[in-house]
# Entry
Amino acid sequence: MPESPGFVAFAVDLLSPVGPVRARAMFGGHGIYCGDVMIGLVDDDEIFLKTDDATRDRFLAAGCRRWVYTGGGRTMETSYFRPPDEAHESPEEMRPWGELALGAARRAAAAKRARAGKGRGKAAGKGQPPPRRAAVRGGATSPPARSRPRRPSRTGRPAPRSRR
# Structure
């Protein structure tokens, strides 16, 4: 059953003390974002917040339920947990749980950026592109050499050249 628009607005209001929170429809539910990270989701008129190894024990100790879904004939466990019932009473009660979720989401985003930066030719790990090739005649740099020839398009006509 899809969630009601009123409940999605309620979830955003509950989590508003954490920062600029917004909801975005996705996969039949709604993702809850604070800034550029997803801190939770709404499914079937229930709020679930992101956890990680640093925060999961707090949710488990409070008796929170994990969000699970069925996909491909399998039940999948996620890192999202429903906050305690008391947290649904007011934004002030939800704040500590939202802050735990925001911390988990930021750590996950930082780890993802670190993984993406490895092995991509970044200079000295600073996120800088590799240095340009040496200048040739007149100080202009030459474009990188193509590693393989252009393939013809499916229509048999030559593929259009990119403009540089």
In short: Residues 5-117 form a domain with the Yope Regulator; Chain: A, fold (CATH 3.30.1460.30). The longest strand covers residues 74-81. DSSP finds three helices and eight strands in the chain. Strands lie at 21-26, 29-34, 37-42, 47-50, 66-71, 74-81, 135-136, 140-141.
